[in-house]
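Q: What would this complex look like in 3D?
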Amino acid sequence: MSKRRAFWLGAGAMVAAMAVSGAAFAADKKQPKKKDYRAAALEVMKASFQARGQATLDRLNQDEAQAACSRSAAGEPLASDLKKKMEEAQSATVKYPADSKYLGSWKSGERIAQTGRGLQFSDDPSEPAGGNCYACHQLSQQEVAYGTIGPSLYRYGKLRGNSEPMLKYTWAKLWNAQAFNACSDMPRFGHKGILTEEQLKDVMALLFDPESPVNQ
Amino acid sequence: MIRRTRIALLAVGLAMASPTALAQDQAAEGIAQYRDMLEDDNPADLWELRGAELWKTPGGPKGASLEKCNLGLGPGIVKGAYVRLPRYFADTGKVQDLESRLITCMMTLQGRSFEEATKQHFGSGSEKKSNMEALVTWIAAESRGMKIQVSTTHPKEKDAYEVGKQIFFFHGGPHDFACSTCHSQDGRRIRLQDLPNLTTPEGARKGFGTWPAYRVSQGEVRTMQHRLYDCFRQQRFPEPRYASDAITALTMYLAVSANGGEFAAPAIKR
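A: Here is my prediction, written as structure tokens for the whole assembly.
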């Protein structure tokens, strides 16, 4: 290759390189910054909602799990190590009954499972909240109006027995379902103070008591 | 013919189903039959008639009717307006759903205040009828049978859609609920009520395309606006303001997801 030819090739390459970088620069300038729609949505929500009764605006302030689960639901799946970390953090929130007694009255438990009221802006805060278990789960066979968002719990105790580890596991699941499954659809009944310890014992009895309609 | 097919299906059900499933099938069957019976004679017709009258009735400090209201297709054009809402309006610089747009018209054409335009926005029995719900029912009915075709071409329409999508997946409150908790899977029920999967076109068409609807359990016609309001109540969220941007954005997300479907409201529901 002659020197002159090499010169022109080199110059041509430089011009081409400059043109490419120039084009890239222009594209950078043209391309608007990617919008943060999550932040925009939160801003819109804060301006669009108002406190009413017990449903105050701080309910829009997400905890870490809610924020991560929103991102995941909107299309950014949780990395497996984050999922594990979240489950560990949720697991650490579980409080077991001080007297180590897990089972209350299944009759009260059935009422709690049937009741859907509680914590809505339309609810009287002096009334106890329900668990609304039937909204998502089959429990007793007599109640045919059950939902299917969660699995059937019919014969829960009869199928599993009521060993200490089974009682403990179920208590933890009711207290904070995300301890076992990050971003579970199930509310964290104990952790979020939806149900009291006594109410949780009654729901436990509905699941485990041999006399409970769930185990017939 | 339909009835005969049903009886045959019920017989197959009898032979195969467990007692619980059978009781459920019978309950669902009963509801479906009830709905069919009412379909030809939907009480929403009464709201529709009242809405058509209200549109033409002079009112507000300016004593004007809404007949010159521009719902997006030009002043006074009602047919086909609903299946193209929400949309961007240059005069307000905002994406608006039908209610929000009607409020604009009541304020600009009739001279009403926002408070006056939105008082009794949801109906409650014969004592507290809602003019807004009657208007919405009539305007929606004028698009019955048309294809849902909501645009995202204007940047603000695209923004509203994206914001609405984020709201749909936003977990919050003591129960951690998001819209997606109940509405992102196929074939699920809450109690006996089927839940549309609003993340699919079929589900979104079922959800968005059948409101407003006469709610038998409430004796009222309810709109999409009310449906979303009541969902947020049950999600344990604070109270959404009427015709607020969050409701419009969420409606935008659902409407765009329902695009291409046939608009089948006013419907009749449980």
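A: To summarize the key features: Chain A touches chain B through 50 residues (CB under 8 Å). Helices of chain A lie at 3-30, 37-48, 64-73, 80-91, 106-114, 156-160, 164-175, 197-208.
Q: Very helpful, thank you.
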